[in-house]
Specification:
Layout (H helix, E strand, L loop, with lengths): L1 H6 L1 H21 L4 H11 L6 H10 L5 H30 L10 H28 L3 H11 L3 H11 L4 H18 L5 H15 L1 H5 L9 H29 L5 H17 L6 E4 L2 E4 H17 L7 H4 L13
Antiparallel strand pairs: 1-2
Helix pairs in contact: 2-5, 5-9, 6-13, 7-8, 9-10, 9-13, 10-12, 12-13, 12-14
Length: 326
């Protein structure tokens, strides 16, 4: 069994991630309205949807544990595959990726974290300016109040929010903690990022396919149009995350931070008022276009290596115990 899992580790990881996600969707189907009720309450109370609210609502309404199980699917899948294929040593190396940075100086690590925080604050600032020019003064007040009782407290709240974003915290030990380092054994960083971004989008399909069962007119086309926005977005996030991955020495926080910038802006900052660009029947979020532009700029500046130095490109297996001669 060990050899079977080792030779098919990535395939089995993805199958398990999809399988666990389907289990979560099956649990959700037992009370399909529960999540919607919880989300409407969160919005009505002007709360942030984060890891704290996820556990709070799940404790109150047990069926909502599906909303934790679904994003945790990649991490659970990675744990199972590593435990079987590479044993305690593999798990130890996997958990080691939770360090805020690895193999780089603290100055470099702190600089990368600060850069991400400033990047997020800049995005938030641009959005608030956009609201001010489009008559969104009430939305500005609500957005600031969602992150802090005063503008100064909200400034810290925006940064702390990156550390509490539930999707990134629950998913990324699977995507950037396991799948990315395994893909980098076979592909250059750019291609590995594109493959992972595509698989990441495909993993969301059990959630996105559910509305197709409603029988509503236009449900199929709405699903297809959504993928035109989702797939480029996940690929762009993957490229940005891989760039950060090398800057943080392979830390999983590269994925958590890149993923959290996306999720926090879409879910908690620009809630319900995302700038969009419409082409015919297709609606693209302005944030997706901006993220794609950032990813393209990184590729232009760094090439297919995405900033990896020569040592980082000569990788040993991330989870196998090295042989003495290695």
């Amino acid at each position: 069994m060990v050899q079977f899992f080792r030779s098919r580790a990535l395939v089995l990881f993805f199958i398990l991630a999809i399988g666990i996600a389907l289990v979560a969707m099956a649990i959700r189907a037992t009370d399909p309205g529960a999540l919607g009720v919880a989300l409407r309450e969160i919005i009505a109370n002007n709360q942030r949807a984060d890891i704290i609210t996820a556990f709070t609502y799940s404790l109150r309404e047990p069926v909502l544990w599906n909303a934790i199980l679904f994003p945790a699917a990649p991490t659970l899948a990675a744990f199972i595959v590593i435990a079987i294929a590479y044993g305690p040593h593999g798990l130890s190396r996997w958990f080691g990726r939770l360090a805020p940075w690895r193999g780089v100086s603290w100055r470099v690590g702190v600089s990368v974290w600060l850069l991400v925080a400033l990047w997020f604050l800049a995005i938030v600032g641009v959005y608030l300016v956009y609201l001010s020019f489009t008559g969104g003064a009430p939305a500005i007040t609500e957005t600031i109040a969602r992150f802090g009782s005063t503008p100064l407290w909200a400034l810290g709240g925006f940064i702390i929010a990156l550390l509490l974003s539930s999707g990134p915290l629950l998913e990324e030990m699977g995507w950037r903690g396991f799948a990315l380092p395994m893909l980098l054994l076979r592909f250059n960083p750019l291609l590995a990022s594109v493959i992972l971004g595509t698989l990441w989008a495909a993993w969301h399909l059990p959630r996105d396919i559910a509305p197709l069962t409603s029988g509503e007119d236009g449900a199929v086309m709405a699903f297809l149009y959504k993928q035109i926005d989702v797939i480029p977005g996940t690929i762009a996030t993957s490229i940005i995350a891989t760039f950060l991955y090398f800057k943080l020495g392979g830390s999983v926080w590269s994925g958590i931070l890149a993923h959290a910038v996306n999720n926090e802006f879409v879910v908690n900052v620009a809630r319900g008022d995302l700038p969009v660009w419409t082409i015919g029947e297709v609606t693209l979020r302005g944030w997706t276009l901006a993220e794609c532009a950032i990813a393209i700029l990184l590729v232009v500046l760094t090439g297919p290596s995405l900033g990896a130095d020569e040592d980082q490109r000569q990788l040993q297996h991330p989870f196998k115990r090295p042989r003495p001669e290695e």
